[in-house]
Amino acid sequence: MANEHNYFVRPVSGVWHVTWNDAPDLIGSYSCQAEAQAMAELLARHMHTQGRTAKVHVFEPEARRATWGRSIVAQQTAA
């Protein structure tokens, strides 16, 4: 277990937290999933270059909807 690293990307109160090995210590807090996931993957690649294993776990990924902005505008104009 000493050479195995797990990075967790979780949504918490509207921001995305990156933690390590499920510890309570926060590596970083990011405004979007893509930034948080990129940081976790960067850290995992760094561990791979040192000969260690590393995995990235993403919880509750954001659902991408192309019509999100348009539907809100349509609702506001209809009201």
SSE blueprint and pairings:
Layout: E1 4-12, E2 15-20, E3 26-30, H1 33-49, E4 53-58, H2 68-78
Parallel strand pairs: 1-4
Antiparallel strand pairs: 1-2, 2-3
Overview of the structural elements:
With 79 residues, this protein is an alpha+beta fold. It contains two helices and four strands; from the N terminus they run E-E-E-H-E-H. Strands 3-2-1-4 form a four-stranded mixed sheet, with helices on one face. The chain is elongated.
Short summary:
The chain has helices at 33-49, 68-78, and strands spanning 4-12, 15-20, 26-30, 53-58. By secondary structure, it is an alpha+beta fold. It has a four-stranded mixed β-sheet with strand order 3-2-1-4, with helices on one face.
Features:
alpha+beta; 79 residues; four-stranded mixed beta sheet
Strand content: 25-35%
Rg over CA atoms, rounded to whole Å, is 17 Å
The number of helical segments is 2
Strand order of the largest sheet: 3-2-1-4
Number of strands: 4
Give the H and E element order: EEEHEH
Largest sheet: 4 strands, mixed
Instruction: Provide the residue-averaged pLDDT.
Output: 83
Shape: elongated
Distance from first to last alpha carbon: 57 Å
Class by SSE composition:
alpha+beta
The proportion of residues forming helix, as a percent range, comes to: 25-40%
Low-confidence regions: none
